[in-house]
Each structure stands twice: as C-alpha cells, then as structure tokens.
Protein: NRT1/ PTR FAMILY 2.7-like
Amino acid sequence: MASKELPASGDEYIHDEEETMECAGLQTRGGWTTFPFITVSALGLSIASAGWTTNLIVYLIQKFNIKNIHATEISNVVNGCTSFFPIVGAIIADSFMGNFFVILGSSILSLLGLVLLTLTATLDSLRPKDCKEDLETCEAPSQFQLAILFSAITLVSIGMGGTRFTLATMGADQFDKTKEQGTFFNWYFFTLYLATVIGITAIVYIEDNVSWGLGYILCLVINTIGLTIFVCGKRYYRHIKPRGSPFTSLARVIVATIRKKKMVVSSESKDYYHGCMDGTMFNTIISPTSSFRYELDKS
Structure:
C-alpha cells in the first residue's frame, strides 16, 4: 500500500477516519468466544456432507438403477463441483456478502438438498423399483425422478462448497494474532477430519446395513443442528465488511502503477503501514525495492 502523507511533526500517521474506526470496531467481537460455535457448526455440516458424498455411487446404482459407469461420472462431477464452489464462495464472501451470509445461505441450500435427497430415499414414487435378480433389465428412473435427484445433488453440492473453507476463513477473522489463528486452524482441520471419519464410517454403515432413509435423515438432522449452532453465534462474530470485487482492486493497482511510474517514493519502511491491531494501524511492510519494472507500492 502506498505511504500516507506524514503530518508536520513526523511522529504519527494521518489515517482515514472511517478506516481507523473500522479497525477499532474489530475489537468489540470475535476471539475464542466464537470458537465453539464455528467448530461445532463445521463438525455437523461436515458429517452431513461426508455421509451423502462418500456413498453416492452406491446409492445411484442400488436405488436409481443407474449403470456403474454413469454413477461414477456423476460422482466425479459432484467432487469437481465441491472443489470449485469454494472459490466462487470465497469471491462472493470477500467482495459482496461477507462470510456469515455466504455460510448461512450455503447451509440452507445444503439443508434443502438433503430434504430432497431424504425424500428420494423414503418415498417409493421418487425412485424406480428395485432391480430383481431374475430380471436381466431394470426399470430406469423417470425424468421427474431424475429431476428431483439431480436437484438434490446440486443443492447439497453448492452448500458443501460454500461452507467448508469459508467457515475456516471466518474463524481466522475472529483473531488478531497469528499464533491464535494458527491454533484455530489446527483445531478446525482436526474437527474437519474427525467429521469426515464419522461420516464415512457411522453414517455409511447405517445407509448400507440399516436404511438409506435413516442415513439421510441423520445427515439432515446433523446439518440442521450445525446450522442452528452457527446462527446462535451471530451476536459474537466479528463481521468483516466486504471490500468489493478483487478484480476491480487489481485493475486499479495496475492503472495506478502505470500512472505513477515516475513518482518518487520514500525508502523508509516507517512510511508504510498495513493492517490493524488494538484499534491502531501497524507497520508490517519493509522498505520498497525496485525488483519490478513498475513499483507496485506506488499504487
């Protein structure tokens, strides 16, 4: 970030009033108070996600009479989408809506998807008849049945992609110190992997050996609990204001860099600042260098 103009005394920086107030406001919420809400929410949402994704191929083959190759293709598309959607969710959260509302909306979509998925497992009219061993061909699912199934898969995929890593980002935003953020990430990913283990063992066992309907009902209930706990912590969260599209900011940096390529900047690191802590701006930028053709710190 470009250096701010120094006052006559040279001892203090002149900061934008809104920016300073925002830094001070960050201290009123957040901290370890939010930790149980975020981690328990992550636990519930991740168990539900692992419960339906891990066994999806088996469900498509056994209950919808879809051929092995096509079931695998569908599963691959789902895995690809759940890996891509976090990028989209991160852009929307950082640019427009904020982490809280992205997580809230994604969790609701996941909940709606699990409702439809549970209905396909419990209502005979929403899936084709089971194959019989003495028949060479099986009844194919109708267009309506496939529409309900794919709608359910789409909703839960979007929900899974929008919550998994956005929750981690929101959790890190609750802390100022790097050490505390590192501790949070350790516990968060421990919770994430623990939830995955529970989902691919306990939930999958119930789906394979007891009932698909019961397994999906458990996923639905656990997702609901996770969403409820997340919403209950709203009053304690630190909400970071969205900064607008990152692409707009990048474009501005490039334009400003070109326009100011002949500008002379200070070589003192004290003339640069970045971030805030305890309500004041703090310096984390070293002296600029001329390593690049255009010095980006002029922007």
